[in-house]
Structure formats: C-alpha cells, structure tokens
Amino acid sequence: MARANLSCVLLIFVVYTVGLTGFITARTQAGMDFIRASCAGTRYQPLCIQSLTPYANTIGQDQRLLAKAALSVSLTQAQSCSAFVSNLARSKGLNSRAYLAVQDCVNQVGDSVNRLSNAVQELGNLSPSGSQDFTWHMSNVQTWTSAALTDANTCLDEFSRQTMDAKDKVMIRARVLTIAQHSSNALALVNRFAVKHRKGSTKP
C-alpha cells in the first residue's frame, strides 16, 4: 500500500514537473519571439537580441519589463566601464592631455551610471497607462536615457581628438561604445513602450 502511494506521488510529481517545464519553455519561446520583434526597431539589432535573450522568460511579452531589462543591461555596462576608466585615470604614464581626457570620460560615464540608475528606478514608479503621472514618469525615463547616451557619445568624441597610448584608447573606446549602443537600443525600446502605453493601450 505504501509503495503504491509512493508511486502515485512520484507520478504526480513527474506530471507536474513536465507540465511546468512545458510552461516555462513556452513562455521563454514567446519572450524570445517578442524580443526579436521588438529589437527589429533598434539601431543595433543583433546586440539587442543577444543582450536581452537571457531575460526572455522573465520578460515574456511585457513591454515594461523589456524596457527595464534593456536599461538594466545598459546600467551594468556603464558601471563596468566606469570602474575601468577610473582605474586607468589613477594609473601612471598618461600625459597631461590624455589624463584630462580620461578624467572627463570618468565624469561622463559616471553621469551615465547615475542617469541610467534613475531611469531604471523611475520605470518602477510608473502609474497606470494614460494617467498624467504615467506621462511625467515616462518623460523622465526618456530624458535620463537620452542623456546617458549623450554622455557616452561625448566621451567618444573627446577620445577621437586625443593622442594617447593606442591600447588604452582602443580599450576605452570599445567600452564606451558598448554603453552608447546599449543605451541607444534601450532608448528605442523605452520610446516604443511610451508610445504604445501613453494613451492607455495594453496591446503588445
């Protein structure tokens, strides 16, 4: 009798597990399809898909979660770049002009970190679609994301005019360019979310 009950419990567990796995797989697939469709409107589409695919199961088909994930990815990249450039600014061997350029970049990337952090937090404060508060919060998210992109581009422009160690220059530009590309994609997804929901639309 005990063995029969144990077999029954195991069977229920297996059925539940298979069903749950199927649900997760279906949600993940739906999320991946949603990400690919949404990233089609971004400037750096392959990067957009690659960076957001790990969050497919969490995102599902939720535009707010998609925008939040894109902003979070941008923030992570900005934080990593900020740490790298700050360490470089403290290193020896930079001439005075190169040091000033690196220091300016430290400040600009630091601003990007703050603005993207604000944008992520503000996205969590959104009121129901169509309300005045929604419009105000959404406008803040767009402004901060756009400003973070501007900061990254300003740093890139600064380094294009500077003469410094080629290796350092390449590494800094690569990291800042990554911030700019992720921020550009995030801004496109944020704007898409804003357009579709500012008037209270709930369509994907």
TrEMBL record:
Task: Note the NCBIfam families from the entry.
Answer: PME_inhib
Q: What is the lineage of its organism?
A: Eukaryota, Viridiplantae, Streptophyta, Embryophyta, Tracheophyta
Q: Which organism is it from?
A: Dillenia turbinata
Subcellular location(s) of the protein: Secreted, Extracellular space, Apoplast
Pectinesterase inhibitor domain: which residues?
A: 30-189
Q: Which GO terms describe its cellular component?
A: apoplast
Among SUPFAM superfamilies, the record links this protein to: Plant invertase/pectin methylesterase inhibitor (SSF101148)
List the Pfam families hit by this protein, alphabetically.
PMEI (PF04043)
Tell me the keywords, alphabetical order: Apoplast, Disulfide bond, Secreted, Signal
The protein, known as: Pectinesterase inhibitor domain
**Where is this chain primarily localised?**
secreted
- UniProt similarity note: Belongs to the PMEI family.
**CDD domains in the record, alphabetically?**
PMEI-like_3 (cd15798)
